[in-house]
Automatic annotation (TrEMBL), chain B:
Protein name in UniProt: Phosphate transport system permease protein PstA
Ranges that cross the membrane: 26-47, 229-250, 270-290, 296-320, 341-366, 417-436
Primary location recorded for the protein, binned into one broad class: membrane
Membrane topology recorded in Swiss-Prot or TrEMBL: Multi-pass membrane protein
Protein family per UniProt: Belongs to the binding-protein-dependent transport system permease family. CysTW subfamily.
SUPFAM superfamilies hit by this protein: MetI-like
UniProt keyword list: Cell membrane, Membrane, Transmembrane, Transmembrane helix, Transport
Gene that encodes it: pstA
Domain of life, per lineage: Bacteria
Positions of the ABC transmembrane type-1 domain: 225-431
Gene3D superfamilies linked: MetI-like
């Protein structure tokens, strides 16, 4: 689509050399999927043998994973490990990058999301996304939240729309801060507020799954704590997949964690298990801070 | 190397670095001062030459519609048994008779009445009055036949030669043979000026009259101004939507391949094509092939549109490229389609940029002369075009024509006046653009 996005995406996969150098200690192997234990939840999204190519370069290798419903699944791993790339497969944002190709199968509630007959607009109405940098539209706070419902025709009247905007902002715990200035520009809010506005905007369409691509990396610790609280509340109603650089964050907010390295899913399982007794040495090295 | 030695090395280079910095700053300031100096000189010259042209020597005379000179019957009144055609015929016969009246005699009498002791003969008297004054008197009389036998105050323009003489545009010490007016006429003009019967009045007619060759003092810009407005309109109506849509398609939708690369290179090249080439193209395509009327603002506007399109496309594309990808991702992530993303979010952010580009393009088009010469817009047109299909002149072409007029010392000032009007129009356009842009930016 445009060069910037492409470059950005390329950059994410640039620093592989360094990692290769460090990881040749380990033998490469395909993803090890541990059986989920105690917390048995219905599976919402399944990915099977997903590989992603940017032009001739393969960035993700045969990843298979199950995302449970109404829980937070965290993707962790060093920079360039493919976790963001993988996340973007779930709402087909990779489609917008020229030269990007996805193979394998991802299904949402049993339906293949890469089915050519499926409308990507419909998919994105079901799978919302929150980005790394807060990116509110340069419009009013109200318009930011109302935009999704409006293009999808979810509100029948002005009153309907007002109700959607209010409940979305409330769910994003932003309502009390902005209720008196709904018609001021959303770009005038603080960074943390902007990110919560973006979350409100995503949930205004009532998606089933919310993807979050390092939602706190541009925020200070206080704003981060608020977003984390919010994620914790949101998981009552939504299936959340979050990519994060911070292992503490993954430990705090997620129920399941998947560790990616060099485009491979190394290990995936209940968060406490991953952090206390990882099955792979690479995982252990990463979470104990030996590289990454 | 000790740390002291290292410090000494750094210090040794420091003064040279500071000097370089100072020198560079000086160059920058010198360049700006030079540029501003030239701009100031240009404006000073245009204003000092052009402003006097906005006032013109004007007679205020008491004109007596002497029945001995104006020998015409009463204006016919339509009788009940007359058909409209017969009545019209009778009226036009009467008007013809009014035209045949020797109005110059009326003027001469009025001037003599104002300066009874003048030695000037009638030829000399008439040489200081604009030649179309007689038509103005005729029109006054046609409009109101009751003026017959009455004396009314009338304002009449002085002739271009008289205006020159009175404004001192002609060296007063020149011998008689080199003067445009004969001695008694010059003396008469000076006397009337001293007595206040000729005054320098604001020359409204510059804005309301069309170009004139037989009566240069009454020549105005109205036709060229309206012609230019029509052309701007054509350019805005065509170049903006076509240019913006092309840019949006090329930037947001078109696949990136050899063909689109080729298009891009060609658009960039088009922006550098000399404007006269567009004129040739316009003559070949719009005039010869599509048979648009010669000298019409529509044909001119189309040529200028071709010239402006690359500017608009290039500027819009760079404005679109400057839109952060996060904005597109935000909209796409919400499930907006590509078109919705572009039209709801990306394009609105670029409005200020597009607006600026449009104004620059339109201002460029407004001042363009060369391509218009090739499609016949340098013709002498003495009418205000009623539609873009009528023959017309344009402001820069009018400047070009006046600049070449043989009545040099009168039209030099007139040319500068026309330049002032053109610059005024451009400044107005720019002001509108700045106003709109700040408004749009505030909204965003």
């Amino acid at each position: 689509m445009n060069e910037n996005t492409q470059l950005e995406a390329r950059e994410m996969h640039m620093p592989t050399e360094k990692i290769v150098a460090r990881s040749d200690l380990y033998e490469m192997e395909s993803s090890t999927v541990r059986t989920p234990d105690a917390e048995q939840r219905p599976v919402r999204v399944t990915a099977r043998n997903v590989s992603v190519f940017y032009g001739p370069k393969q960035s993700l290798f045969d990843v298979s994973i199950d995302i449970p419903e109404k829980a937070v699944t965290a993707f962790i791993g060093p920079s360039g490990c493919g976790k963001s790339t993988f996340l973007r497969c779930f709402n087909r944002m990779n489609d917008t990058i020229e030269g990007c190709r996805v193979t394998g199968k991802i299904s949402l509630d049993g339906g293949d999301i890469y089915d050519p007959a499926l409308d990507v607009v419909e998919l994105r109405a079901r799978v919302g996304m929150v980005f790394q940098k807060p990116n509110p539209f340069p419009k009013s706070i109200y318009e930011n939240v109302a935009y999704g419902p409006r293009i999808h025709g979810l509100a029948r009247s002005k009153a309907d729309m007002d109700a959607i905007v209010e409940s979305s902002l409330q769910k994003a715990s932003l309502w009390n801060e902005v209720k008196d200035r709904l018609h001021e520009p959303g770009t005038g809010l603080s960074g943390g507020q902007q990110q919560r506005l973006c979350i409100a905007r995503a949930i205004a369409v009532s998606p089933e799954v919310i993807l979050m691509d390092e939602p706190c990396s541009a925020l200070d610790p206080i704003a981060t704590a608020r977003i984390e609280e919010l994620i914790d509340e949101l998981k009552q109603n939504y299936t959340i997949v979050i990519v994060t650089h911070s292992m503490q964050q993954a430990a705090r907010v997620s129920q399941r964690t998947a560790f990616f390295h060099l485009g491979n899913l190394v290990e995936e399982g209940p968060t406490d298990l991953i952090f206390t007794s990882p099955g792979e040495k690479r995982t252990q090295d990463y979470i104990t801070g030996r590289y990454g | 190397m000790t740390s002291n030695e290292r410090l000494a090395l750094v210090r040794a280079g420091l003064s040279a670095r500071h000097r370089r910095e100072k020198r560079f700053r000086f160059y920058g300031i010198a360049a700006i001062v030079l540029a501003l100096g030239f701009v100031a000189m240009l404006f000073a010259m245009i204003l000092s030459r052009g402003l006097p042209a906005f006032t013109q020597a004007t007679f205020s005379l008491d004109v007596h519609f002497d029945p001995a000179i104006v020998k015409v019957d009463k204006k016919p009144v339509r009788s009940s048994e007359q058909s409209p055609a017969e009545y019209a015929k009778e009226i036009s016969a009467w008007e013809r008779k009014v035209t045949m009246v020797n109005w110059n005699k009326v003027i001469e009498a009025a001037v003599r009445n104002a300066a009874p002791e003048t030695t000037a003969n009638s030829r000399e008297i008439l040489s200081i009055v604009e030649t179309n004054a007689r038509f103005e008197l005729r029109d006054m009389f046609v409009a109101d036949p009751a003026l017959l036998g009455k004396t009314v105050p009338v304002r009449m323009l002085a002739s271009a030669n008289a205006d020159n003489w009175l404004k001192g545009n002609i060296d007063r010490s020149l011998p008689d043979a080199q003067q445009q007016l004969r001695d008694p006429a010059r003396a008469l003009a000076d006397q009337l000026m001293a007595e206040g019967k000729i005054r320098n009045a604001f020359a409204w007619h510059i804005f309301t009259n069309v170009d004139s060759r037989s009566a240069p003092a009454s020549a105005g810009l109205a036709g060229a101004f309206v012609g230019s407005l029509y052309m701007i309109l054509v350019v805005i109506v065509l170049a903006v939507p076509i240019g913006v849509m092309s840019a949006v398609y090329l930037e947001e939708f078109a696949p990136k391949n050899r063909f689109t690369d080729l298009i891009e290179v060609n658009i960039n090249n088009l922006a550098a094509v000399p404007s006269i080439v567009f004129g040739l193209l316009g003559a070949a395509v719009f005039i010869n092939y599509f048979r648009l009327p010669l000298s019409a603002p529509l044909a001119g506007g189309l040529v200028l549109t071709l010239m402006t399109l690359p500017t608009v496309i290039i500027a819009t594309r760079s404005a679109l490229r400057a839109v952060p990808p996060s904005l597109r991702q935000a909209a796409l992530g919400l499930g907006a389609s590509k078109t919705q993303t572009v039209f709801h979010h990306v394009l609105p952010v670029t409005y200020p940029g597009i607006l600026t580009a449009t104004i620059i393009g339109v201002a460029q088009a407004l001042g363009e002369t060369a391509p218009l010469l090739l499609i016949g817009m340098n013709a002498f047109v003495a009418q205000v075009p009623a539609t873009p299909l009528d023959q017309s002149s344009a402001l820069p072409v009018q400047i070009f024509l006046w600049q070449g007029n043989e009545n040099r010392n009168f039209f030099e000032a007139r040319t500068s006046a026309a330049i002032i009007v053109l610059l005024g129009l451009m400044l107005t356009l720019n002001a509108i653009a700045i106003f709109l842009r700040s408004k749009l930016e505030k909204r965003a």
